[in-house]
């Protein structure tokens, strides 16, 4: 197991759709261990495989003292009438938080290392995390979901940070 370096905005791996995991081998087992160790730090809610440079569909979470993972997650349900509009941040966009509209409830279905079905669901922070991490696996950042005026501010803040 290893604490892995987080890839940040500008790294092409973050904009690449991750490939499904077709075989659980030592590489995938090691990936899961690294995801679990890397997310298990205060202030970290979720971590997608591409955020540590691996283009496979897997993520881990650390919400309310529960740490877990899911392989090949699919976002199968979100609340259509209830939304949350709180600030969202990202390990790959360090130090910046912006209001991001997300569904209040979300459910993801995937599998574990033994091929058993895993269902992860929740409201508020867990729902935000599930939507955020599946977006990562699809090559999206939360910045892509910002309203136009907020996105403009976010891009300016990122440029200032890099200067």
Automatic annotation (TrEMBL):
<dbReference type="GO" id="GO:0042586">
    <property type="term" value="F:peptide deformylase activity"/>
</dbReference>
<dbReference type="Pfam" id="PF01327">
    <property type="entry name" value="Pep_deformylase"/>
</dbReference>
<comment type="function">
    <text>Removes the formyl group from the N-terminal Met of newly synthesized proteins. Requires at least a dipeptide for an efficient rate of reaction. N-terminal L-methionine is a prerequisite for activity but the enzyme has broad specificity at other positions.</text>
</comment>
<dbReference type="InterPro" id="IPR036821">
    <property type="entry name" value="Peptide_deformylase_sf"/>
</dbReference>
<comment type="similarity">
    <text>Belongs to the polypeptide deformylase family.</text>
</comment>
<keyword id="KW-0408">Iron</keyword>
<dbReference type="InterPro" id="IPR023635">
    <property type="entry name" value="Peptide_deformylase"/>
</dbReference>
<feature type="binding site">
    <location>
        <position position="90"/>
    </location>
    <ligand>
        <name>Fe cation</name>
    </ligand>
</feature>
<dbReference type="GO" id="GO:0046872">
    <property type="term" value="F:metal ion binding"/>
</dbReference>
<dbReference type="GO" id="GO:0006412">
    <property type="term" value="P:translation"/>
</dbReference>
<feature type="binding site">
    <location>
        <position position="132"/>
    </location>
    <ligand>
        <name>Fe cation</name>
    </ligand>
</feature>
<keyword id="KW-0378">Hydrolase</keyword>
<feature type="binding site">
    <location>
        <position position="136"/>
    </location>
    <ligand>
        <name>Fe cation</name>
    </ligand>
</feature>
<keyword id="KW-0648">Protein biosynthesis</keyword>
<protein>
    <recommendedName>
        <fullName>Peptide deformylase</fullName>
        <ecNumber>3.5.1.88</ecNumber>
    </recommendedName>
</protein>
<feature type="active site">
    <location>
        <position position="133"/>
    </location>
</feature>
<keyword id="KW-0479">Metal-binding</keyword>
């Amino acid at each position: 197991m290893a604490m892995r370096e987080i890839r940040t905005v500008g790294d092409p791996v973050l904009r690449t759709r991750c490939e499904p995991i077709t075989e659980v081998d030592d590489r995938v087992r090691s990936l899961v261990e690294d995801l679990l160790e890397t997310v298990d730090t205060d202030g970290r809610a979720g971590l997608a495989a591409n955020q540590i440079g691996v283009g496979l569909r897997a993520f881990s979470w650390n919400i309310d003292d529960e740490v877990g993972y899911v392989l090949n997650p699919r976002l199968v349900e979100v609340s259509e009438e209830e939304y949350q509009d709180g600030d969202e941040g990202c390990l790959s966009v360090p130090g910046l938080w912006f209001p991001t509209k997300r569904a209040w409830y979300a459910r993801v279905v995937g599998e574990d290392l033994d091929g058993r079905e895993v269902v992860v669901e929740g409201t508020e922070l867990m729902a935000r995390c599930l939507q955020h991490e599946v977006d990562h696996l699809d090559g999206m950042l939360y910045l892509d979901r910002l309203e136009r005026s907020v996105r403009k501010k976010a891009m300016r803040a990122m440029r200032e940070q890099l200067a």
